[in-house]
Amino acid sequence: MLVIVVENVPPRLRGRLAIWLVEVRAGVYVGDLSKRVREMIWSQVVEGAEDGNAVMVWSTNTESGFDFLTWGRNRRMPVELDGLKLVSFHPPESEEKG
Fold first, then answer.
1. pLDDT tens, 23-56?
2. H or E element that contains 15
3. What CATH number does domain 2-73 carry, 3.40.190.10, 3.30.70.240, 3.40.1190.20, 3.40.605.10?
4. Which of 8, 11, 15, 51 is the most buried (most CB within 10 A)?
């Protein structure tokens, strides 16, 4: 199983993802592809995301049963702890008061 979620990416990238995967909701793509195709798709996401962001999650033989990659600016960041990949949050950007 493979899931890709994109936000604020160009329509041409969304169209390209729809060639290989099923868009079950806006910006959420699902499929079942080989590792080689998954890596090729991720390279397309990285090249085409521009100012957007993306996360890719896939089933694998790990303790949690899945792994994931992220791309672009987002408050969530992957952190590895005792062999498990978890998600941490960057602190919110402070707003300057004038």
1. 999 999 999 999 999 999 999 999 999 999 999 9
2. helix 11-20
3. 3.30.70.240
4. 8
